Task: structure prediction
Amino acid sequence: MSGAADREAVFPTRQSLGIMKAKLKGAETGHSLLKRKSEALTKRFREMTRRIDEAKRKMGRVMQVAAFSLAEVNYAVGGDIGYQVQESVKSARFRIRTKQENVSGVLLPTFESYLTEGNNDFGLTGLGKGGQQVQRCRETYTRAVESLVELASLQTAFVILDEVIKVVNRRVNAIEHVIIPRTENTIKYINSELDELDREEFYRLKKVANKKQRDNAAADAEMKARREALEKNDPGALKQDSGPADILAAEDDDDVIF
Amino acid sequence: MEGLLFNVNNGYVEGIVRGYRNSLLTTPAYSNLTQCETIDDLKLQLGPAYGDFLASLPPNPSTSALASKTTDKLISEFRYVRANATGSLAKFMDYVTYGYMIDNVALLITGTLHERDTRELLERCHPLGWFETMPVLCVATNVEELYNSVLIETPLAPYFKGSLSHQDLDELNIEIVRNTLYKNYLEDFHNFVNTHSDMAGTPTAEVMSNILEFEADRRAINITLNSFGTELTKADRNKLYPTFGKLYPEGTLMLSRADDVEGVRLAVDGVHDYKTFFEAVSMGGSSGPGNMGGGSADGKSLEDMFYQKEMEISKDAFTRQFTYAIIYAWVKLREQEIRNITWIAECIAQNQKDRIGNFISVF
Result:
């Protein structure tokens, strides 16, 4: 990453340096916040993966037990009760409601199962024989559906969380590897440009001072030469001149240079 | 005396049925079945007994396909026997089918009540309970029409008449309708074997009474146990008890008043068999009777013991000669065999080998 090319198109002025510095600070704060969010989400994600694993295993076991209890029903009743059960059911006994859970700013839907009370539509199925097995089978299947709902809730959250973690990580990486270096580069560039300007300015001043000095020296030398020439031509005049000379008429006074 | 002329009309049928009985699976055969690793193995093991019927099954068939194929064998054998039966034996065999017919009609009533296309239901009906005019019932679009067609078209009319009106079909739970019909059926069957001139006083009456009484008691006990915790009132429950059997009348009266399992246990205390069942159950499983196994492999439930008892009674029926009861017993034994095969197949298919021994084998 050669810094020279990757910088923002700004004029290297002190004002934009200030803006850039503020921007860098903002980016660093945002980066640390996002990093923390991503870590929190990842932690949650790991935990969820573990729970999904557990739930899947549990579901396998529960479904096996449930399927077996249906076999028991078939054995005890000696026939198919499916149709009768389907037809005698009027309203759902097992229901779910959805809730939202907030995990570091991410809304995850969770499903919660509950049984409606007093809703036993096929309580009399298998009255003559096998009724107990039918009820037991229903209970095992209720448990099976419960674990299915749990798994569904976890899976949904898993997918959403996965998406969110990807987005957050992308942002973290973008800030870390693009925005911050670029801002830093810009600052560096502005600084170097400003330094360059400073140096130029200094050099220029030095040049001006040098020239002035030279000019002064030349003027001094000329003055001196003139005076000497004057003295040679009229030595008294100079003395006369110099003694009671009119102070106000002193036109050849040197400039006072500090 | 009854043996003198029995074989004139019924000797062939009796011989056939005894032959069928000998082809039932025996305990060694069952133990072979339980050793199977896959359904295909099971199919192979069933080959000698069910050969042709299982041949059309695809490899690794589902347990329900297996069950329906094994049932097909029972049906075809039953139809053969029925075709060869004459006179009172034919009537007797019709009576055997009425029980299945009740289930079928109950199914159709359920379908009509919920305004389904009942023609689709015909496939689900038990083939033994099939009667020629059954498709006619599907024409009915509402319960009243259905009620009238049932009265006209089916042999079940007497069971409806007097105890159920068409409003009842609408209002009552289908299970109550079914059990009312079954109660009437059992009473009628019991009456039939004890009063028909060909059967009264013969071993048929004796054995069949025994079987039917057991069936009646079993239903009474089951209904009581299964009605706990449902909206079935005691008065309604009382109407579902058959009015004969070893428990009748004192036991059934006490059953009708029972509030819990303990009450049922007290009610059946007078009959030795049932008393021992309840004792075994209360010793074996703490979760109460009826819970099949309750998770433990060896604990037998009340239901299991009733089946066991039924099988023993059915097996004993074959010790008598010159009786129609062997047909009933054979059907029941074969049904149990189908259930056993299905159970073993389920256990193999679902890899639950620890419960595989939970079937009932009597031979």
Observations:
- Chain B touches chain A through 49 residues (CB under 8 Å).
- The radius of gyration of chain B is 21 Å.
